[in-house]
Design a protein that fits this description.
Two copies of one chain form a homodimer. By secondary structure, the first copy, chain A, is α/β, with parallel strands linked by helices. Chain A is built from 14 helices and twelve strands. The first copy, chain A, has three domains: about 45 residues, 434 Repressor (Amino-terminal Domain); about 130 residues, Response regulator (Rossmann fold, 3-Layer(aba) Sandwich); about 140 residues, Response regulator (Rossmann fold), CATH 3.40.50.2300. Strand 2 of chain A pairs antiparallel with strand 2 of chain B, so a sheet runs across the interface. Chain A binds a DNA duplex through helix 2 and helix 4. Chains A, B: Keywords: DNA-binding, Repressor, Transcription, Transcription regulation.
DNA sequence: TTGTAAGCGTTATCAG
DNA sequence: CTGATAACGCTTACAA
């Protein structure tokens, strides 16, 4: 007696064939009706109606794997992050970006598949590759964070898989990406400070050499190079200070020394820890000074959550939701037209805040 | 001139057949070697080595779509919420639950598909029904929030689709669910208050008749029924007050009136707005009283984000991440064994806080 | 206007 | 131990 074939998990899932039987048509017709009949093939309205009714009755939903295998598409967009997409440590979470991704994806009729790279065994060679390969189930994929292993990603891209990286990533030739325009936003902050009357300002960077950090420094230097700021910034030590241990190096006396040199504005960048900004605020406080009365402060990015209650820093906000939405737009452009030519840079919004004002009159 | 068939994204990707040719074996053998040979079929080590080498050389990576199609499962867990999965209004977001869902899903080798109720063509059709059917794309699905339409959900479940509801949902026969054990947690709070010496306490409910609210009231009454609390709570007006407009009804004079009746502890439940708790805190404040010196306060749940800075309320926390993880466990049990018999109730952790203490000595 | 049939890349079943 | 061969559910020429 022949064994019953292994009961597949797919058990109750209705397929096109069953819809076809119920509607009294062929499976092909069901496919035509249900996939929107892109071929422009003429279908009898009654047939169409019967098929739709049958599908509704059976609760039919297409199998994404089969759809994809048959060389069509899934209408699934992948979101891959090497670390957990929803970290327990809410601090540097992708949540705000995902808000934008979801909105834009929904608006365009895509569902989202979350591929979380197992953070386990990052050492092994084949490990990362296999992880990344899963995303092929989706029509295209968004990649989050700069920890996405470059090599497997490159292979994906080389083989023509539609991928968009969120955050600048131009080391990989041919990989599309969207990122915040840190350089322009930083330059804008410098210009605003200059407009307030500041002539000498200093940027405090952490030694972390993230791409975003490089961009900010570039924007900072570029804006300093404009007009009379150029001359002013030539004097004294460089306008950019890179510190390994902000809390130890950025002290009250350090601040006083800079003030004595004629610096009137201090700028720090947002990082995971915001150590530089924290140090700056603490040092100013310790020196018995107040912003914006005695000096001006600006933060290139958003303050950390635990400082949310304090005075809103002058600076800019990265439009994270917009970043996610832009990524989805770029990806869908890749999917449909095959080429996205819109700028990958998303502008940041200047935030007036309350830590910058005109420099105090020279003593 | 015949059009080239639509260029498949599949472009130069190596397949098992090519690996087989290179290794000089059959494609079946390649599949056996590469998929770990779960069948336990004996393979010659040399063959194995040759296949692996060929695969490596070609940079072979299995096509997840094909793999899943053949295996009759796609290792996808759906997450459906009627409202957006990532609400812009972060206040009552599912984030903490998703943290647990993701962790557990990753640990079990599943990927997540996010569906949103709003995702459908917002136009006509079966409305929620058609919407819900889309989840069939995943092997099983988690449902979030009590706004999931009951009827389509019932059909899904009746047809054997593996579904787990997060939050109690026993109106639907056969629907698996996991939920916080509000009754037990509330009873625990009452017991703690009793242990501190409180004999008469009152629960302030909002008129919203959520299941969670019912559970809490049940737990409250049950715990009151124990020991001498029973006698004490028999006197005066009932121990449970249900108010339509907390801000208007829970006033300083209301609090004083209760105190005069011998009530020494006030309990409110967490809701979306936390209106009852806010009203209670405001009323106590307006009466010039302080907790825990003059009376005790307890909050059945977590305080809203904007009150996070204030004194931590005594009460309990719903382990949201654990809830998500439990839901995933239940769902995967449904998927693999076909039956989950673990308790659907997740215990809540008592939170000592600082708003409860011994009742003041009687005047 | 509808049906037939040939794959898509993999897994699973058997007979060698 | 290996290799045909048949699904898996769907799309898409092409035939009727």
């Amino acid at each position: 007696m022949a064994e019953q074939p292994v009961a597949k998990a797919r058990r109750g899932r209705p397929r096109q064939a069953e819809v076809a039987r119920l509607a009294g048509v062929s499976q092909t017709t069901v496919s035509l009706v249900l996939s929107g009949n892109k071929q422009g093939i003429a279908l009898h309205p009654d047939t169409r109606a019967r098929v739709l009714e049958a599908a509704r009755q059976l609760g039919y939903a297409p199998d994404p794997a089969a759809r994809r295998l048959a060389a069509a598409r899934n209408d699934l967009l992948g979101v891959f992050s090497f670390t957990a997409t929803f970290p327990t440590d809410v601090a540097h979470s992708y949540y705000p970006i995902l808000v934008g991704v979801e909105q834009e994806a929904v608006a365009r009729g895509y569902d989202l598949v979350l591929f979380t790279g197992s953070s386990a065994a990052p050492g092994r060679g084949g490990g990362g590759a296999a992880e990344l390969n899963r995303v092929r189930l989706a029509d295209g994929c968004l990649f989050l964070g700069r920890h996405v292993p470059a090599d497997p990603l490159r292979r994906l891209v080389e083989q023509g898989y539609p991928a968009v990286h969120i955050g600048r990533r131009d080391e990989l030739e041919g990989l599309a990406w969207v990122g915040a325009d840190y350089a322009a936003a930083t330059a804008e902050v410098v210009r605003r400070l200059a407009a307030l009357g500041h002539r000498r300002m200093v940027l405090v960077c952490e030694s972390d050499q993230a791409l975003a950090s490089v961009d900010r420094e570039r924007g900072f230097r570029a804006a300093l190079g404009e007009g009379e700021l150029a001359r002013a910034s030539d004097a004294g030590p460089g306008p950019v200070v890179r510190v390994a241990d902000p809390a130890a190096e950025i002290t009250a006396s350090w601040v006083r020394a800079r003030l004595a040199e004629g610096v009137t504005a201090f700028v720090a960048e947002e990082t995971d820890t915001c150590a530089a900004w924290r140090a700056l605020v603490a040092a100013v406080d310790a020196a018995g000074l107040t912003a914006p009365a005695d000096l001006s402060l600006a933060l290139l990015g958003a303050p950390p959550a635990d400082l949310a209650g304090r005075t809103e820093p002058t600076g800019f906000d990265v439009p994270k939701a917009e970043l996610g939405a832009a990524a989805v737009r770029t990806l869908t452009a890749l999917l449909t037209e095959g080429g996205a030519d819109c700028s990958p840079l998303v502008p940041c919004a200047f935030r007036s805040g309350h830590t910058a004002g005109p420099p105090p009159p020279a003593p």
